[in-house]
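no rush on this but wanted to send it before i forget. theres a chain ive been looking at and ive put its sequence and its fold in token form underneath. i want to understand how the tokens follow from the sequence so walk me through it. thanks a lot i owe you, the record is right below:
>
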Amino acid sequence: MVRLFLLSLFLIIAYPFSGFLLAQTESIPNENPLKVGVAGSPPFAKYNEQTFQGISVELWQEIAEINNLQYQLIAQPGVKAGIDQVIAGELDILIGPVSITAERFQKVAFTQPYFNAKIGLLISREKTSVWSRIRPIFRVAVISSVGGLFFILFIVGNLIWLAESRRNSEQFPRHYVKGVGNGMWFALVTLTTVGYGDKSPVTKIGKAITSAWMLITMVAASSLTAGIATVMTLLLSAETTEQFKQPEDIRGKQIAVISGTTGEKWAQTYEARLLPSPNLDQALERLKSGQAQGVMFDVPALKYYLYQHPEAPFQIADLSIALEDYGFVLPLDNDLIRELNIAIVELKQSGRLEEIMNREIQGDFDN
């Protein structure tokens, strides 16, 4: 009886606190850390066996701290492999420079975009030689401009000779070759406004021709000089990139791509001859060896590589292929995406995301 009485008394006392204890137990968060995959290239994802760095990694660390999330970072061999792991349930989240596409949206969910990137083409930069510098001089546009100038000088030289050869034979001899040669010399020094004074017309017709020629050269000389200079500038600047001026120029070319990336998809779209590589380093090796005529990949990664390797004989072709957004990848049936989106927007608005990017790219990287 005594035991029964004590048990009943304990239950009466403990009952009011049972709801409180139950509520405390239910509010304790799940201690199992999130499995977060990391894939992609610098400056967004840089990792080895022990450390993880990059814009995407630091952004995720800020988001996890805001939401008090426990996680474990796991390196992935590539973006496609990481997405497959998310679909299979082996990863809870995939971070890195993962482009948001309609095809991927059918299989996984994406967070709010946190970066807008371009798809570009890295090509070899030709070594400068003496011939490469003087070769534009022999192009048709330059030769035709110079030829046109000499033709005009020849016409004016003939007109001056015809007007002056009888009364001013000392300066413009009656011998055709010498006389016209002196006339062309006179037209040239007048054109250039040098005016040596060694030749001058004395007849009214000769003075009239000279007056008309001077008025014409005031307008024509600057335009002609500017035209030749423009042609030369364009030819010199186009020496190394003239092969790729628009995306359609990629058709039929040997283009190295990273397997499973959107760069590979765009190269297929423009009917390039693909040389798939597992990572950017191997794709660059194919460009160095001459196997590939270009590497199609995300411009941020290509710019970062050139910044880290200023001696590399590469440059980004001046053509626009596509614009894409980066986001984090989650399974379709997730409960975290709203909290992650709120955190990304807050980091954008506060300027914190821009600070992370500037620090990671050492202030010398431009989107």
